[in-house]
Specification:
The complex is a heterodimer of chains A (about 350) and B (about 325).
Chain A (H helix, E strand, L loop, with lengths): L1 H27 L4 H11 L14 H27 L7 H17 L5 H30 L3 H24 L17 E7 L2 E6 H19 L1 H11 L1 H6 L4 H27 L11 H11 L6 H23 L5 H14 L1 H15 L1
Antiparallel strand pairs in A: 1-2
Helix pairs in contact in A: 1-2, 1-13, 2-12, 3-7, 3-10, 3-11, 3-12, 4-5, 4-6, 4-10, 4-11, 5-10, 7-8, 8-10, 11-12, 11-13, 12-13
Chain B lengths: L1 H26 L7 H22 L1 H33 L4 H26 L8 E2 L26 H19 L1 H11 L1 H6 L4 H28 L1 E2 L7 H11 L4 H24 L7 H4 L2 H13 L19
Antiparallel strand pairs in B: 1-2
Classes of the chains: A mainly alpha (about 350), B mainly alpha (about 325).
Chain lengths: ~350, ~325
C-alpha cells in the first residue's frame, strides 16, 4: 500500500498543480473555475446535468465516456510496452488508422452476423497493427533505421493512402467521411435500451481493462516480458546475458503495434463508427502523454486515460455552458504532462532533502 | 519542370533552416523532437504581433509586416524553446518526453490563444490570424538562364533570408571556437567540462538557436502555404526536418540535400498528379512519394548512421 502511495504521489501532485493553474486561467477569463470543472465532470457523465434530451440521462453520458476511454487505454498501453523496451513508437496514430481502415472495408460493410463479425474486427486490429509494428521493429533491428523516423514516415504514407481509398470508394457524400459501419461489426452496442434510457455499451472498454491487467502480468512475470524490459534498460548488457536483442526489438514492436491496432478498431469501429479521411487521430499522440502520466505502468495508464478522457469528453459541454474555448482542456492536459515530466527530478530532490534531514 | 524547382525550393528551405536548429541542439547533446511545436508557436507569435501592432499602426504593418512577423516569430520560437531547455537541462526530464510535451502544449496553447484573442480583442470567432500576401521576385540576369534559371525565379524574400542565416549558422558551427565546443558536447560533455567549457550554458544556447530558426521556418510556411496563421500549421513539417537531419547524419551540408530531396519529391508529386490529369484525390497518392523515397533510401544509408554519443543524456558533473 505504501509503495502504491509512493508511486501515485507525483502524478497526483502534477494533476493538482495543473488544475490550480487552469483555475487561474479561467479566473482571468472572468469565469468561475468551480463551475467550469464541474461542467467537465457533467460532460463526462460523472455529475448530473441540469437537463437532458430525450432518452438520455447521466448514465448514458457515463457510458459514452467509458466508450471513449477504451481506445485511449489501448493506445497508451502500446506506448507503455514500447517505452519499456527502450523504443519510442510514435506511429500509434498510423497503426490505428490502418487497422481501423482494413477492419472497416473488410468487415464494416459485410453481411456477417455480429457474433462472427466482431471477433474478426478485433483480429484484424491485432494482425494489421502487429504486422505494421513488426516491420518497424525489423527495420530497426536489421537496418538500424531509427524507429522514430520510420514510424513518422509510415504515419504519412498511411494517412495519404487511406485518404485516397476512402475518398474514391467508401465516402459518404454528405458527411465527407467513410460510410458508417453496420451495427453487426461495431464494437460498441449503440443505443441499447436499459434503465429507461438508451446506452452505448462498449465491449472495448472491458477488453481494454483485461488487456491492461494481462500486460502488467506479462511484463512482470513472463520471461518474454522480462527480456523486453532488460533490452530496454541496457541493450549491450542483455546481449552479453544471452538475450537475442534483435528478436526482442521486433517482438516489442509487434506487441506495441497490435495494441495500437486494438486502439484503432475500438476507436474507428466503436466510438466513431466511421473514418475521417486524411486525418491522423490526435489520440495516437495524446497516448504518449497518457502513458507518461500513468507512470509508464499498465495499470497506471487506466487511471490516466480516465482522467484525460474526462478533460477531453467534458470540454465540449464545458465550452457550451461557460463560453470558454474548449481547447483549454488541451492546455490543462499539457501542463499536467509538463509537471509529470519533471516529477522524477522533484522526487529526487525531495528524497535528497529527507536524507539530509536525517 | 520550372514549377517543380520553384515550389520544391520554397518548401525545402524552411525545412532546411529548421533542421539546422535541430542539428545545433542535438549535436550539443539535447534531443530535440519539439521542432514541430517550436515552428508552430513561432508562426503564431509572429502572426499575433502583426495582428496586435496592426490595431494602432496599420500603415507600419502594411509596409513592413513581413519583417516584423519574422523577428517576432524568431523571438517566439526562442522563448518557447526555453521551456524544452529548462525541462531537459535544469530539471533533467527525459528529453524525448519533454519534446513531445512541448509539441502538445504548442498545439493546444496556440489554438486556445488564437480563438480567445480573436474573440476578446477582435470580437470575431476565428482560429486564424491574417498575414497578407508576400510578393515574389525574379532575380535579374540569373533567372534568365535556361533551366537553372528556375532556381532564381519567383523567390520569396524569406528564401533569401534563410540562405543568409544558414550560411552564418554553418560558419558559426564549423569555423568558430563556440561551434567546436558545441559539437564536442554531444559526444563527450565530461571531457569538455574538464576543459572549463560551460556545458549547460552552451546547451541552453543551442536549444534557443533551434527555437529561433524553427520560428523563422514556421512563419515562412505560414506565408507561403496559406498567407495566414491557423492550427493547420501543425502538419508535421517539424518531424520531417528531424528526419532530414538524421538522414544527413547530423551534418549541415548533407542535411541540405536531404531537405532538397523532400522538397522536390513533394513538388514533383504534385506536378505528376497534374500532368497525368488525375482526379484530385489522387494527389493523396503522389503525396506519399517523399516518405516512401525516404524509407527506401534509409534502407541503404542507415547502417553508418551514428547519432551523437551523449545525445539525450542529462549532464551530471559527478558521473563519468
Amino acid at each position: 500500500m505504501k509503495k502504491v502511495l509512493e508511486k501515485i504521489k507525483m502524478p497526483l501532485l502534477a494533476v493538482t498543480i495543473s488544475l490550480i493553474f487552469g483555475a487561474i486561467v479561467i479566473l482571468l477569463l472572468k469565469k468561475n473555475p468551480l463551475e467550469a470543472y464541474s461542467a467537465f465532470l457533467q460532460g463526462a457523465g460523472l455529475l448530473p446535468k441540469a437537463n437532458y434530451g430525450g432518452n438520455q440521462n447521466q448514465l448514458s453520458d457515463f457510458f459514452v465516456f467509458l466508450d471513449g476511454t477504451a481506445p485511449m487505454i489501448f493506445a497508451s498501453l502500446a506506448i507503455v510496452i514500447s517505452l519499456k523496451g527502450g523504443l519510442f513508437n510514435i506511429g500509434v496514430a498510423g497503426q490505428m488508422l490502418l487497422s481501423g481502415f482494413f477492419a472497416t472495408i473488410l468487415v464494416g460493410y459485410s453481411p456477417l452476423p455480429g457474433l462472427v463479425a466482431k471477433p474478426i474486427v478485433i483480429l484484424i486490429g491485432l494482425v494489421v497493427g502487429g504486422i505494421l509494428g513488426g516491420i518497424v521493429g525489423y527495420l530497426k533491428a536489421k537496418f538500424n533505421i531509427n524507429e522514430v523516423v520510420s514510424t513518422i514516415m509510415f504515419n504519412y504514407i498511411i494517412q495519404y493512402t487511406t485518404s485516397y481509398f476512402i475518398q474514391t470508394s467508401f465516402v459518404d457524400p454528405v458527411s465527407r467521411q467513410s460510410k458508417y459501419i453496420l451495427s453487426s461489426a461495431s464494437l460498441t452496442f449503440k443505443g441499447v435500451s436499459a434503465f429507461g434510457v438508451k446506452l452505448d455499451i462498449s465491449i472495448s472498454f472491458f477488453l481494454a481493462i483485461l488487456v491492461a491487467i494481462y500486460l502488467n502480468y506479462f511484463l512482470n512475470k513472463k520471461k518474454d516480458g522480462f527480456e523486453i524490459k532488460m533490452v530496454g534498460l541496457n541493450r549491450k548488457g542483455s546481449e552479453y546475458a544471452g538475450v537475442n536483442v534483435e528478436k526482442t526489438i521486433i517482438k516489442t514492436m509487434v506487441i506495441s503495434g497490435a495494441l495500437a491496432g486494438l486502439a484503432g478498431v475500438s476507436y474507428y469501429l466503436g466510438y466513431m463508427q466511421s473514418i475521417q479521411p486524411g486525418v491522423l487521430g490526435s489520440l495516437g499522440f495524446n497516448a504518449i502523454a497518457t502513458a507518461l502520466l500513468g507512470g509508464v505502468n499498465s495499470i497506471g495508464v487506466i487511471f490516466a486515460s480516465l482522467l484525460l478522457t474526462i478533460l477531453d469528453r467534458g470540454s465540449v459541454f464545458m465550452s457550451s455552458r461557460l463560453g470558454i474555448v474548449k481547447e483549454i482542456s488541451g492546455v490543462i492536459t499539457s501542463i499536467i504532462l509538463i509537471f509529470s515530466a519533471i516529477s522524477g527530478y522533484i522526487g529526487l530532490k525531495l528524497s535528497e532533502r529527507k536524507k539530509e534531514e536525517r | 519542370m520550372e514549377r517543380i524547382i520553384i515550389d520544391g525550393l520554397q518548401f525545402a528551405l524552411p525545412l532546411f533552416i529548421m533542421a539546422i536548429g535541430g542539428i545545433y541542439s542535438e549535436r550539443s547533446g539535447i534531443t530535440n523532437l519539439c521542432l514541430e511545436g517550436l515552428q508552430g508557436f513561432g508562426a503564431f507569435f509572429g502572426a499575433l504581433a502583426i495582428a496586435l501592432i496592426g490595431i494602432n499602426n496599420p500603415s507600419l504593418v502594411q509596409a513592413n509586416g513581413f519583417y516584423i512577423a519574422i523577428i517576432f516569430a524568431m523571438i517566439g520560437g526562442m522563448l518557447f524553446s526555453l521551456l524544452h531547455a529548462i525541462l531537459s537541462i535544469k530539471y533533467r526530464a527525459n528529453q524525448v518526453v519533454s519534446g513531445i510535451v512541448v509539441n502538445l502544449l504548442a498545439v493546444s496553447l496556440t489554438e486556445f490563444l488564437t480563438r480567445q484573442i480573436n474573440s476578446t480583442v477582435f470580437g470575431a470567432p476565428s482560429n486564424k490570424f491574417q498575414l497578407g500576401v508576400l510578393p515574389r521576385h525574379n532575380i535579374p540576369v540569373l533567372s534568365e538562364i535556361p533551366l537553372i534559371g528556375a532556381f532564381f525565379k519567383e523567390i520569396y524574400p524569406f528564401q533569401i533570408i534563410i540562405l543568409i542565416v544558414a550560411v552564418l549558422a554553418w560558419i558559426l558551427f564549423y569555423k568558430t571556437r563556440l561551434g567546436l565546443r558545441l559539437r564536442s558536447l554531444g559526444d563527450n560533455p565530461h571531457a569538455a567540462d574538464s576543459q572549463g567549457v560551460n556545458v549547460e550554458g552552451i546547451r541552453y544556447f543551442a536549444v534557443m538557436v533551434s527555437g529561433a530558426l524553427s520560428g523563422l521556418a514556421g512563419i515562412s510556411f505560414a506565408y507561403s502555404i496559406s498567407a495566414n496563421f491557423s492550427p493547420a500549421i501543425f502538419m508535421g513539417f517539424g518531424y520531417l526536418s528531424i528526419t532530414a537531419l538524421i538522414f544527413g547524419n547530423w551534418e549541415i551540408g548533407p542535411t541540405f540535400f536531404a531537405t532538397l530531396l523532400f522538397g522536390f519529391a513533394r513538388s514533383g508529386g504534385y506536378a505528376l498528379a497534374k500532368a497525368l490529369k488525375m482526379e484530385a484525390a489522387f494527389t493523396d497518392i503522389t503525396m506519399t512519394l517523399p516518405y516512401i523515397l525516404t524509407l527506401l533510401l534509409l534502407l541503404f544509408f542507415s547502417k553508418n548512421n551514428r547519432s551523437p554519443r551523449a545525445l539525450g543524456e542529462p549532464f551530471d558533473k559527478g558521473k563519468r
